[in-house]
Design a protein that fits this description.
The structure is a homodimer of 330-residue chains. In chain A, strand 9, helix 5 and strand 10 form a beta-alpha-beta unit. Chain A has two domains: 144 residues, Quinone Oxidoreductase, Chain A, domain 1 (Alpha-Beta Complex), CATH 3.90.180.10; 149 residues, NAD(P)-binding Rossmann-like Domain (Rossmann fold), CATH 3.40.50. In chain A, strands 3, 4, 5, 6, 7, 14 and 15 form a seven-stranded mixed beta sheet that branches. In chain A, strands 10-9-8-11-12-13 form a six-stranded parallel beta sheet, sandwiched between helices. The model of chain A has no long low-confidence stretch (mean pLDDT 94). The first copy, chain A, is globular. Chain A is of the alpha/beta class and 330 residues long. Chain A contains twelve helices and 15 strands. Chain A is 29% helix and 25% strand. At the A-B interface, strand 12, helix 9 and strand 13 of A face strand 12, helix 9 and strand 13 of B.
Chain lengths: 330, 330
């Protein structure tokens, strides 16, 4: 059977452009004993992908090799099987890649309960939810009553961070790039305050929203929110650096704040990336499922249609054009 | 008996100027039961003092109140006593202040063995040694074979950091502001490499001195060393922020590095100040005494003469004019 897959054939310099990719028509192979064939139904698009395309051998995960199918996580259904543990009709989640079909022996895949919608899997139980949980709970170690500021709060990670923090009894202030996103954060997700970072009086609004200062800052964006929030950190504040989306599309990264406040307030700043924490994934998935089942984690999916929509669509992540967790429905 | 003390009567805006102080002539009081009279012999001058003079209520330690004797640590001798535990002739260390004499009930004081020179007490067993140990060992958690860069390496803290790191089997690279200081670090203290940060090819020299990248950065200064070293951090590197002496005398603190490397290398940056760690002082003092007794901690004292020399002399710390741990001999 013929299917389509997308290979990375060139590395981005600054922007992700269509010439980086090659659309290939492939043939599904005969299955060996122990193998099964997956048909992907939902494929996740994440900001981290830009890093995976680049040639930084010192990054947290090796880049995708040129000529290989582009890396991504997704939800798929078993459509043919020579493996006892995976039956036709089973749903799985894993790093499936930019492809309609894939052959697997089960390594690195996780079986999904039938009750969870595929969109929830990609929004809650995949990279966004796991990243939010790892960063906020394992690194930030929040205490009820503390104040959290999260930038990129309407993004796939940020929206999970804020909701987990609310579930844990924190005061939650988020920043986002449109008034509509801010309303969603306040009205639907229960944020205490959401602020449009493009406001003229951003500093004043952030100050008013954090009368007791800031104990935790979850950083997804960089930019002015970083500098203002850094200046409002309380003693022993913790900053978790997860993303710097403001700088992914520039070759002149903007400077960070001066470090003197690190000493005055005895701050800790920690950068992290999920590949260091895969061992913790099963335990975190349990926690996330519990929040989700209790109705505490809402999400918005922004669905593109068809595999090839990923090529242009991924840039929505860097322009802020997506309205929810970006994914491709196949 | 009359004696001299120096009070803080004005807060610094940018520089420490003589008009901030008032030289007072005081009279020693009659001792109450349990009290004793101290004659200070050596008084420490430290960069942290500038922070103690300023009006930042959010800092790690309350500022010195206007009209109070300026805060400092020192070594003193008991010259009169109505306290069973402190006899005339005993030597003590503690926060004695800018004064020739002081009355104490023993609170916060530590008795010193007769065998340790007063200079060693202020260089090794006081703030410099304790700060170095807390930052490097407790926060940095170095492993033998790792590479450390320490800025302000010829300073009172930096020189201790580098020597402790050498004792623990690290590769140690230091930066300092004169060639003479660099020679001292390499020839006397055993640093693997010392670099004059005023060199034209600082970046090249730092690169050559750290062929395997940098695992730990102990920050005392800020400035260009910070930016270059930040860019050379290895995955899971740790940065300990102890001082920013380049910025203490400016009202325009220079920007820090962009945070994207925090994620790519999963770095942790921790700011700290000793007042959070007083509980750990007895244990750390033991360790420091052991290094010192084993001949592993050398020091240079820069001694000023007479209490009033502190008023102008403290600025040597901010111009780099001192050649060793700055102290006043009384």
């Amino acid at each position: 059977m013929q299917y389509t897959a997308i290979k990375l054939v060139k590395r981005p310099t600054l922007h992700i452009t269509p010439d980086l990719f090659e659309v290939a028509t492939l043939e599904t192979p005969e299955l060996e004993e122990g193998e099964f064939l997956l048909k992907q139904t939902h494929m996740s698009l994440d900001p981290a992908m830009k890093g995976w395309m680049m040639e930084d051998r010192n990054s947290y995960i090796p880049p995708v090799e040129l000529g290989d199918i582009m890396r991504s996580s997704g939800v798929a259904e078993v459509v043919e099987s020579r493996n006892d543990k995976f039956a036709v009709g089973d749903r799985v989640q894993g790093m499936i890649g930019w492809t309609e079909y894939a052959v697997s022996n089960g390594n690195g895949l996780r079986k999904l309960p039938a009750s969870i919608p595929a969109e929830a899997v990609l929004c809650v139980l995949s990279l966004p939810g796991l990243t939010a949980y790892q960063g906020l709970m394992e690194i930030g170690k929040p205490k009820a009553g503390e104040t959290l500021v999260v930038s990129g709060a309407a993004g796939s990670v940020g929206s999970m961070v804020g909701q987990i923090a609310k579930a844990e009894g924190l005061r939650v202030v988020g920043t986002a790039g449109t008034d509509e996103k801010c309303r969603w954060l306040e009205d639907e997700l229960g944020f205490d305050k959401a602020i449009n970072y493009k406001s003229d009086d951003l500093a004043r609004q952030l100050k008013d929203a954090t009368p007791d200062g800031v104990d935790l800052y979850f950083e997804n964006t960089g930019g002015p929110v970083q500098h203002i929030t850094f200046g409002r950190m309380n003693a022993h504040g913790r900053i978790i650096v997860c993303g710097m989306i403001a700088d992914y599309n520039t070759d002149k990264p903007s400077p960070g704040p001066n470090w003197i406040n690190m000493i005055r307030r005895r701050l800790t700043i920690t950068g992290f990336a999920m590949p260091d924490h895969w061992d913790n994934v099963p335990a975190m998935s349990e926690k996330l499922l519990a929040y989700f089942t209790a109705g505490k984690l809402k999400y918005r999916a922004h669905k593109l249609q068809g595999l090839e929509s990923a090529i242009e669509g991924i840039n929505l992540l860097f322009t802020g054009g997506n309205t929810g967790k970006l994914m491709v429905e196949l």
